[in-house]
Predict the 3D structure of the following.
Amino acid sequence: MEQPRAVILAAGEGTRMKSSLPKVLHLLCGRPMLWHVIQSAKAVTSEQLLVIGHGAEQVKGYFGEEFLYVEQRQQLGTGHALQQVLPYLPATGEVLVLCGDTPLLENEVLEQLVSFHRREGAAATVLTAQMEEPRGYGRIIRDKQGRVQKIVEELHLTSEQKTVQEINTGSYCFDLQALKRFLPSLPQNALKGEYYLTDLIPVLVEAGFKVESYKIEDALQALGINDRLQLSWAASRMREKINTALMRSGVTMIDPATTYIDTGVEVGRDTVIYPQTILEGKTKVGENCRLGPGLHLVDTLVGARVTCRQAVVLESILQDGAIIGPFAYIRPGSTIGAGAKIGDFVEIKNSSIGQGSKVPHLSYVGDTQMGPGVNMGAGSIVVNFDGRHKHATSIGEGAFIGCNSNLVAPLSIGSGAFIAAGSTVTRDVPPGSLAISRSKQENKEGLGKRFLEKKKEK
Ligand code: UD1
Ligand code: CA
């Protein structure tokens, strides 16, 4: 049987978010809430139509050309939003209508909704949930036989209806013939002047059409996000799911409650994640790594057996067995070679560090190609910026850079070269040479002692 179409309502401003960003673009685990809704919809529908309005350009800018966008110029309610797409929907079949602000709904539930709707041969099936705290949601009002009669919004509830805990999730499956016939003449809500999609339900019931409901078992999936508090609840619930799946797949988490992993991040088996670790974007981590505590990886590829703690790593590659941190900052475009060590208070930018090389303490390395087996002494610095331009540096295999040296770029240091501690190197160093560039030391006999004694007298 053909899959239904999906319509996702995403034109609202999201006033309650108090934000200049359209509500549906607010992030949960690294992706806009609308992205999550689209993912679930894609799994069960043949085509997705997005109703956009508020912040339309921003929404299109994020999602690109893949979807059919229909603009709702004035946000006159959820019913009005759906009216805008009617011309783009076929005459028969089904449509799954979803809200852009319910990102926790999983495709299994949508699948169940569609098959229930088909089995029952309904004109409309509402996805409902039982909520302990139903405030803010539309309530499902049933007749004496228990059939869905109407949906009443919070604003319009009688005190008796307020006790109803069955809520409208805002997701529905409609028969297109019935929808096309009745949606255009949806009544306007007298109090708000809006066209509520929920008001289509009594219209269908009164016309003698079959209206059904399908209740989600896991009510938490129905969470609708209207403000930032709800956003944080939804994000924490989504994180829990991501962490659970990773632990099930063989990742150890010392404290899942303080482990923040974006949707789509991969982590290999037997990797151990310590508290306060954040893995974002396109990050992929191999097997047997030790991550954290206190680690932030963004769009970073991590090989196997990497140790990385108390560090920030952006858009970089950490190869097998690398050791990073504590207290390291690795900026975009860097590759840390296999078994290399980047130690404490070290910053690496747009550089490649060769296999087994060591930059253990207090260094800056920028725009540098470093071969394998290099040792950078404590405090040595690559001077890559002359105030106007950035320049490149290369350091050959096995070179030894003494402590506290300045390597003034552009510069090439040959393989096996030795830079004496405290040197400021401004000219290329041939392979195997020793470079020393610092003023000669003089020792004045007895002067130190005299100096110290004078100080005491004062
Ligand atoms: C809606 C439902 C309510 C349900 C709840 C579930 C109505 C009248 N109410 O209420 O029964 O319990 O969702 O979370 O349908 N939108 C548009 N155009 C508009 C207005 C809204 O596209 O003119 C979009 C919004 O972007 C949003 C969705 O529709 O994604 C729901 O709108 P929202 O204002 O959040 O409705 P609720 O008050 O939450
Ligand atoms: Ca909502």
User: Anything to note?
Assistant: The mean pLDDT is 97. DSSP finds eight helices and 41 strands in the chain. The helical segments are 33-44, 56-63, 78-85, 107-120, 176-182, 200-206, 228-248, 447-457. Residues 5-222 form a domain with the Spore Coat Polysaccharide Biosynthesis Protein SpsA; Chain A fold (CATH 3.90.550.10).
